Amino acid sequence: MRLLHLSLTNFRNYARLELDLPPGIIVLQGENAQGKTNLLEAMYYLSAMRSPRTNADRELVNWLALEEALPFARLVAQIEKASEPGQIELSLVQSGSNRLNPNGAVLRKHVRINGASKRVLDAVGVLNIVLFMPQDINLVAGAPGLRRRYLDDTICQLDARYCQQLQEYNRVLTQRNPLLRSLRGQADNAQLAFWDQRLAEHGAYLTVRRQEAVQQLDAFIQDIHPRLTEEKERLRLEYCASVRMESRPRAAYQIPLLSKPGAGASIETSALHVAASFASQLSEARSKELELGMSTIGPHRDELRFLVNGVDMNTYGSRGQQRTITLSLKLAEAEWVTQEKNDKPILLLDDVASELDASHRECVMSALDSAHQVVITTTGLAQYKKEFLERATLWHVSGGRVEDLTLP
Predict the structure, then answer these.
(1) What whole-number distance in Å separates Cα of residue 80 and Cα of residue 306?
(2) Which of 133, 262, 303, 351 is the most exposed place for a label (fewest CB within 10 A)?
(3) What pLDDT is attached to residue 185?
């Protein structure tokens, strides 16, 4: 997987940019607030169809363009995937007034793949990217919702059906919760049966695929994390599902799948069992949910935990341990995407050098040798060895402009 050319119009501080990207390692050097991270954000946006930094697409449009009658932003990527060329085009265009903010504008996404209009869901994962940002340390220490979102974003790159099931599950959840509140104190709540069935049906597939993802990431981490910690730590991942699973002995570090992952039939069989268990638990919890006015069981309440030498890092991990765990997770993600797609993803590393000490930095740099394309941002080059910089493409970023940089 390679990004050959990136074109930006009115995206963040880039009013206009046309950039050819070479293979191998690219280092973007520049002071803070000059546009280095904005470039990585644009690349990731074309992969996940959402920003890793904001939920408001309006913030992505260049502030000068917002003053125009019809504000818009446009991102285009020429890519090479499995040796085949392709193009992804994403436009943010005004589509009318926002009722909540008459002076504002609603921006809608328009997506084209190789010139053909596509749904946003169909474009997710066409360009495979693994992104590491300093704030990703919150995956370990932050709220459970961040870890669930990470799993969702990662799996969506590999499984279009998962994206559809996730969208349907969230839609059912937004219908079911108000219904629970409206039926509070009423004896007749039979209409919940329909929404229970839909919640269990869509939620079961999410649960099974998340567990499979955690097992795959855990397997890759067994090789990656010891190298980052000089063989001092063993990291295990544990997916804690709120839905009761099949009665089988549980490992100390992992909830097992109902059947061995891999073949589509196995996933379907597991999902059917989980759906039956999910529906049964919803029935048991109905009185409690009616009292609380919310859905208390399902993937929206699940958790991902990180255990180092048996100790829960979500609670007891140091800042340094949490940073290393996050980096191991991202490197494992890259390995998993490579295995599933039979093509290496593009790696984006935002200011990774400042987050790591010298030994960890060396481990990460050595892991980049096999990547097809890597983009790294940094404020200074002194943290990198001369040999590494000599085999990288160096660019200087300043005020939304990208220029060649020569080593002193």
Answers:
(1) 35
(2) 262
(3) 77
Q: What residues have CB less than 8 Å from 407, skipping those under 6 apart?
A: 381, 386, 389, 390, 394
Rounded to 10 deg, the angle between the 192-228 and 144-156 helix axes is: 90
For the stretch 123-155, pLDDT in tens is 999 999 999 998 999 999 999 999 999 999 999
- Number of other residues whose CB lies within 10 A of the CB of residue 264: 8
**Would residue 16 count as lying in a domain?**
no
* CATH number of the structural domain spanning residue 223: 1.20.1050.90
- Residues in Cβ contact with 101 at an 8 Å cutoff, skipping those fewer than 6 apart: none
What domain count does the chain have?
Answer: 1
Looking at the domain assignment, is residue 253 inside a domain? yes
Asked, for residue 205, whether it belongs to a domain, the answer is: yes
In a domain, 283, yes or no: yes
pTM assigned to the model: 0.89
Residue numbers of the domain that contains 152: 137-319
| β-sheet bridge partners, residue 118 | 111
Cα diameter, the chain:
78
Q: Are 176 and 199 in contact (CB under 8 A)?
A: yes
The number of residues in the chain equals: 408
Note the pLDDT tens digit of each residue in 170-179. 999 999 999 9
Query: 262, exposed or middle or buried, with CB in 10 Å at 0-12, 13-18, 19+?
Result: exposed
Q: How many CB atoms lie within 10 A of CB 253?
A: 14
Taking the CA atoms of residue 94, residue 96, residue 100 and residue 102 in that order, the dihedral angle to the nearest 10 degrees is 100
